[in-house]
Amino acid sequence: MHAAVAVAWRANRRGGWQGAAIVAVALAVGIGLAVLAWIYTFQESLIFHPERLPAEHRFVFSDVSEVSIDVGGETLSALHLKLPAPRGVVFFLHGNNGNLATWFTNSDFYRAANYDLFMLDYRGYGKSSGRIDSEAQLRADVLAAWQVVERQYVGKLRVIYGRSLGTALAAGLAAQVQPDLTILVSPYCSLAQVMQAHYPLLPTVLLRYRLETCADAAHLRSPLLLVHGEDDTVIPVWHSEQLLAVAPQARLLRLPGAAHADVHRFSAYTSELLRTLDAL
């Protein structure tokens, strides 16, 4: 009698452990799926890091105008450096953080090169209203801004410049409009590759922002200048090497000692940009 009770107790105990294990596995799977669902739904907060500016903020430049661009009920804020007799315009697409107050800081270079400079804030950045909801929306906004600008430079040189996040947007726009020159600084071949490098356990199928720079650069027929810091750990230089492979007309300026955010501080960068713009 006692032996039968002991056997039954041991069986129940084993069943209890098995049940607890099943519950633990189910709980872990549920948490994992919830995390993946959050990443898929709210990935904008991981990719984009805007800093807003108050509506009353004013940029103080004697030869720079504030521009507002209507995009489907929202307004993009932009700055436009206009020189008396420029050779052309540089259409600048900045990185994933900050705003025009932190990015529009090297206008003297463009004055010296005799190029106008146009730079916009994406939705939710600076004084731009709204928020980024999709890659299609982001690309449409960039195209709308370009169409406002390029009609002012008929017969003049048109340059599209992208930095970091903005390189995919710049390559996509350039493939569509074929400017006189495209400049990509600290570019990535695709955002999926960046994601795999930094978050190897996350499936790239979650990524709604493909931002495939290499795919667009392959359709460029005009000159392409790539600039990359050799010490860049955010987007390693092999991304630019992949771009070289798909765009044979491209040139790559490798900057020894430069990382991701300090490329513009190197004299070789400034010299090469000036030489390339002068040569157009």
For the structure shown, list the relevant keywords.
single chain, alpha/beta, two-stranded parallel ribbon
Task: Provide a descriptive summary of the structure in words.
The protein has helices at residues 2-41, 44-47, 100-103, 107-113, 135-150, 166-177, 191-198, 213-217, 238-246, 267-279, and strands at 49-50, 64-71, 74-81, 88-93, 97-98, 115-120, 157-163, 181-185, 224-229, 250-255. With 280 residues, it is α/β, with parallel strands linked by helices. The strands form two sheets. The chain has an eight-stranded mixed beta sheet, sandwiched between helices. Strand 2 and strand 3 form a beta hairpin. The longest helix is centred in the N-terminal third of the chain and has 40 residues, at 2-41. The radius of gyration is 25 Å and the shape is globular. The termini are far apart. 32% of the residues are buried.
**Secondary-structure class:** alpha/beta
Percent strand equals 15-25%
Biggest sheet strand order reads 2-3-6-4-7-8-9-10
Helix content: 40-55%
The tally of beta strands, per DSSP, is 10
Unreliable spans are: none
Reading the helices and strands in chain order gives HHEEEEEHHEHEHEHHEHEH
Tally of DSSP helical segments: 10
Q: Based on CA inertia axes, which overall geometry fits?
A: globular
